[in-house]
Amino acid sequence: MTRNKLIIFTVLFLLPITFIMLTGCATYRDMTPGTVKNIPIGESTAASVIKAPSAIVTEETVTVLPLNEHVPSPEYTIGPGDVLFINVSGKPEFSSMATTSNYSELGKVQAPSGSRVDGNGKIHMPYLGEIQVGGLTLTQAQKRILEVAKKYINDPWVVVEVGEYKSHPLYLLGQFRNSGTFYMDRPLNLLQGIALGNGYDSTADLTSARLIRDKKTVPVDINDLLTKGDQRHNVWLKPDDTIYIPDNKNMFVFVFGAVKKGGPVVIPPGGLTLPQAIATAELRDTGHDFRYIRIIRSLSTTRGELMVIDFDKILRGEAMPLILQQGDIVFVPKSGFGNWNDAINEILPSLQAFSALLQPFVSIKYLRQ
Q1: Which residue of 198, 305, 332, 342 lies most exposed, with the fewest beta carbons within 10 A?
Q2: 240: domain CATH number?
Q3: Shortest CA distance to 35 belongs to which of 343, 340, 298?
């Protein structure tokens, strides 16, 4: 590996977590103007190249690769923060079923106490002491408590119920009608998790909606799931998952390269064309190549496109101006730039600076030769 490629690889590895780390690698030779390369998630070198005579290409290939998932057990797994109601042979001195009296504006109320699972997964019970229940199902916890109770009671019986679910949080953020933190009391799929938010409002941008897990975006298309009913994206949720639906009020494209004002360009209500975006960013007086303008487009969290546009054709009236979409990244190369690696080296620092605003599909790994 050459020194330059080693530097590129190291920088790519350290990109902010906003960039999706996708499996596989794509080797792109230089693409001629009028080329669109469709990149479904997990695509390797088999990605198709579409060539067209004009500067604008609208054909799209949709490929969805379902996640390999195991169906979770229907039994709830106990975790830290949960409150358990435990009845041991109906004996209050051995059980955790007592209630406490609290006072509110409505008067005296009975609040269940129970046994709360601590951070180590243990409960603390009268006479029975500490018992490890974290990671167990209710049935397994019942058997474990029963074994302990046999030391003190002849022929005991045990009933375990969950009084409060607190160990399997799900975060709904953004344009939900009812956003916030919810706690799963059973295995939920993505549709069921979204339903907890009581729908979304009219400002929701579903094309940018995403499921975030372990600080990474999961390759599922929430837009296709909700608008087309594509059940391949209806994955099972896990504790600490975040479902995020941004709004469509602040829509941007990004223009980098041989321009004076590189960075985000606001899309007005009437839309934004490629010539308008470049004019807003203001071309440098010298040193730009209109024949190889690059565009990186996110179609969803699972699909994207790489395009090379011959802008000279648009200026000469030989092709219609390209209408840009939310999150498009436009790169105007300097004279002499002719391949994707050159473009990456030029725009990488800028992409890092604006990583929080980028569309979820954007992955620089796909742009490497």
Answers
A1: 198
A2: 3.10.560.10
A3: 340
Q: What are residue 82's phi and psi, to 5 degrees? A: -65, 150
| Residue ending a domain, choose from 245, 268, 296 | 245
> For position 125, which CATH number holds?
3.30.1950.10
Q: What is the mean pLDDT of each run of 10 residues along the chain (369 residues)?
A: 40 33 36 53 30 32 50 92 95 78 55 84 92 96 96 94 95 95 96 95 88 86 91 94 88 87 88 92 78 81 79 85 88 69 68 60 43
The H or E element that residue 163 is part of is strand 158-164
Question: Residue 49 belongs to what H/E stretch?
Answer: strand 49-51
The token duo for 95 is: 């059980």
Do the Cβ atoms of 236 and 69 come closer than 8 Å?
yes
* Number of alpha helices (DSSP H) and beta strands (DSSP E) in the chain: 7, 19
pLDDT given at position 88: 94
Structural domain of residue 41, as residue ranges?
Answer: 3-63+250-367
| 70 in a structural domain | no
Please count the other Cβ atoms lying within 10 Å of the Cβ belonging to residue 35: 18
- 221 occurs within a structural domain: yes
CA distance to 37, 130, 139, 148, 154, per residue, from 151 (Å): 69, 14, 20, 6, 8
